[in-house]
Specification:
Layout: H1 21-30, H2 34-42, H3 59-66, H4 69-77, H5 92-99, H6 102-110, H7 125-131, H8 135-162, E1 167-169, E2 175-177, E3 192-195, E4 200-201, E5 207-208, E6 213-219, E7 229-234, E8 241-244, E9 248-249, H9 258-270
Antiparallel strand pairs: 1-2, 3-6, 3-9, 4-5, 6-7, 7-8
Helix pairs in contact: 1-2, 1-3, 3-4, 3-5, 5-6, 5-7, 6-8, 7-8
């Protein structure tokens, strides 16, 4: 991750070395030097170019670290990819959240930054803000996630009540339902899954709880979740909830009794230090 190194003209690993042209552009972006960054871009420099000395970090990440809102807007207007990740899978949004730059976080969210992305260590932008006790930034990210979840839930409920059933006529012998489209993550309608994210209660009264079982009922219906999750109906809820793939898990060894498999899975969900072997990752039918 860039963090402290982004503002330094030289890395501690190479004191006395001459910074590369890319590294100079990174530092210029972190310091809000619009003239230097514009010159780099106008001379053919890539707006999404990654700096090898900065773990693949980009100018947008550096600007986010420095809280340079005007520079962030400029780079986005020049076509910078808002969800690009460095070698640690950090994004500009995570870096801005880690530094507590609330207005910069807002700009990135307005540019469709994905707050659900995680680093290689599993951290999200919200986790960084909470860890550093950046209250305003964390509140903004929570409200953003709540709003997206509510919109996704509303879209899923609307689709479930209004979508017509597809039919296919075969040889005049009656209507046969068309096979459902493939779902992300290899899931199929009817798969039983467990929710592994943070619990939340929606305004409609629907609720998700960590470790709660639900059933996959189809694809997600919101743009923020499209292609990255499935719609899940949890027991006690009136409608399906759009869930990211990283927040659901369907695991059972086919040779183990269902009750034992579920007991082991729930145990693993409560223990964040344990890892489920790959052979367990088969959908519960």
């Amino acid at each position: 991750m860039l963090l402290q190194q982004a503002l330094l003209p030289q890395t501690t690993a190479c004191m006395g070395c001459v910074p590369s042209v890319m590294e100079k552009a990174i530092v210029a972006a972190a310091n809000g030097d619009a003239q230097a960054v514009a010159a780099w871009l106008d001379e053919g420099g890539g707006v999404d170019a990654g700096c090898a000395e900065r773990d693949g970090g980009t100018m947008l990440m550096a600007a986010a670290y420095g809280g340079q809102e005007a520079m962030v807007r400029m780079l986005l207007q020049r076509g910078a990819s808002v969800n690009l990740q460095d070698s640690f899978d950090s994004t500009a949004l995570m870096i801005a959240a880690d530094q507590g730059h609330t207005t910069t976080v807002q700009v990135l969210l307005e540019a469709k930054a994905d707050a659900s992305l995680r680093t290689t260590s599993g951290n999200t932008a919200l986790m960084f803000a909470e860890e550093k006790k950046h209250t305003a930034t964390a509140q903004l990210l929570r409200h953003h996630s709540e709003r997206q979840a509510a919109e996704g839930e509303k879209a899923a409920m609307h689709a479930a009540t209004t979508a017509p059933t597809a039919k296919l006529e075969l040889n005049g012998r009656g209507d046969v339902g068309e096979p459902p489209p493939p779902l992300p993550g290899g899931y199929v309608v009817g798969d039983k899954v467990y929710y592994t994210g943070t619990g939340w209660t929606f305004q409609s009264g629907n609720r998700v709880e960590h470790g709660k079982q639900g059933e996959v009922v189809g694809p997600t219906t919101s743009e923020s979740h499209r292609g990255k999750g499935v719609a899940v109906l949890f027991r006690g809820n009136k409608g399906a909830i759009n869930c990211y793939l990283i927040n659901v898990r369907a695991c059972r060894h086919p040779q183990l009794p269902v009750a034992l498999a579920e007991q082991l899975l729930l145990s693993s969900l409560r223990d964040t230090h344990r890892q489920i072997p790959y052979l367990w990752c088969t959908a519960i039918r």
